[in-house]
Task: structure prediction
Amino acid sequence: MACGEFELISRYFGRELCSRHDVEEGIGDDCALVNVSEKKTLAISTDTLVEGVHFLRDIHPADLAYKALAVNLSDLAAIGADPAWLTLALTLPKVNNNWLKAFSDSLFDFLDYYQMQLIGGDITRGPLSMTLGIHGTVPRGLALKRSGACVGDWIYVTGTLGDSVAGLQLLRDKINIHDQVSRDALIRRHLRPIPRVPQGKSLRDLASSAIDLSDGLISDLGHILEASSCGAQLNLDALPISSVITKNFSAQQALRWALSSGEDYELCFTVPEMNRASLEIALGPHGVSYTCIGKVFPQENGLTFLKNHKPVKICLKGFDHFRMHEGCI
Amino acid sequence: MACGEFELISRYFGRELCSRHDVEEGIGDDCALVNVSEKKTLAISTDTLVEGVHFLRDIHPADLAYKALAVNLSDLAAIGADPAWLTLALTLPKVNNNWLKAFSDSLFDFLDYYQMQLIGGDITRGPLSMTLGIHGTVPRGLALKRSGACVGDWIYVTGTLGDSVAGLQLLRDKINIHDQVSRDALIRRHLRPIPRVPQGKSLRDLASSAIDLSDGLISDLGHILEASSCGAQLNLDALPISSVITKNFSAQQALRWALSSGEDYELCFTVPEMNRASLEIALGPHGVSYTCIGKVFPQENGLTFLKNHKPVKICLKGFDHFRMHEGCI
Result:
């Protein structure tokens, strides 16, 4: 039976028979939020990466360690948290010292950069996979949730969209481009996504909601809209596409990737009109572009699209490991 | 290359380039300890279970959910923590609704019993395995660490030793016993170990160190002795063996299991002489036996054994997934 990851989680693990008073958000946002003191909330997230599903078999261990941590940091970024501690459960088919050295060197470099500490580890034997548990802190009451968007808010994304999937397709030899600089840039965007941690922290006081783009814009914005009981209108002409993509691929391909491809790990967030003017002060210094791509509408409007100022119809689904992946169920 | 799990963790992941001021214990105890307020410490632990390595392929999903949680609760018990929140990363080869229903029903029953809440989940496609991240709280300064044992302290264990491995051998048809009641009791001890959470909490003010017996008494007591820079003398005649084992197996087999077999999930702890008298008040009401099995000695004495009041030599190694398991590297 084909069944999506989100549906499975909701159906079998969405129950909350015991609702602890210290749990502010359980399953359903980028991180769980638990209140540990009057001033502090912990943000906790966990992600598994399986060989052949989430990463290619021949990925360099340094890239793998980087990406595994980046993916988890991106969840903290989406909630506006300060990264703090990591747990790593690593399952290995065999002991390869060169692999382990390269993996752990890369992991610790990246942890140091974020002043994080690895606090727990488990190594087991089995097919190559890993589960990271990431913990961050956020001042109580300031976490960015998916559920805070309001009608009239503006929808933004950081960076550019679709580069990661182009890099993946290049690595898989599904597409080819001759310009080596472009090729390297796209592959780097796939292997070394930069989690928008400083942006998330800067948006704590300004954004009404946020999510990181792991599954694709339509899918991930859909989570904000569902949690906030809103609709939205996206301006397709405004979607930020990198010059590398524009130069090497058709506008239609670029649009398709921007809307539905996963793993860009940019932030998508909504901002009330009154906070728009403050965005430049908050985000400008980080040196990464941010772009207004649409507006929040009432729920009954659904998700609609404008192109050349006219409504257009689009049918695209998000990226879901139990539905979309190659060799899937 | 044959290489142990503990050695791998220490060699590749034991670095602490960034030592955060809020991390009281990083890698190396049953749980990591992080201080989140002036009064509260969080205990965090993560464990992975892989099909064919940590559980049998035909295990019932209800038993699997129970055991996965029990194993992690046992880590909290060893630190003296109150269970609070769980994250679950589940990797499944395919979607089987009956399996998922039985697994999740069992998990939530057990979570409710401990007033815990599942706060984060991830479901991915791949070979069956799961990683649980468990979080508990302990009053600041009262966590039971491996490093607190002192020369002269008495060594105790809860419950009885070796039942779990006998249950596993029965399930694997490696041994057989005809008495169905005994057989069921041992299998139950393997499939449904009871984490000693209330005992751990009661020991906060009394024990100088503690660990849970996941890898076998010699291996796990060894961790206490190493962390505390001590030696120990164990009285083999005092090791608590269940009547089921005594009735069905030789004394030698029972002794071997008690010393070196894993997954009993009892607590091993050390108690200063002055606190011994308080143990009955603290542990008695929980209805599980506890037994003094030896004494902490200076490190230079190493680990020695007494039988019939005379020194004996024993050579046994612990249970380590990269060294001991069948079909291992």
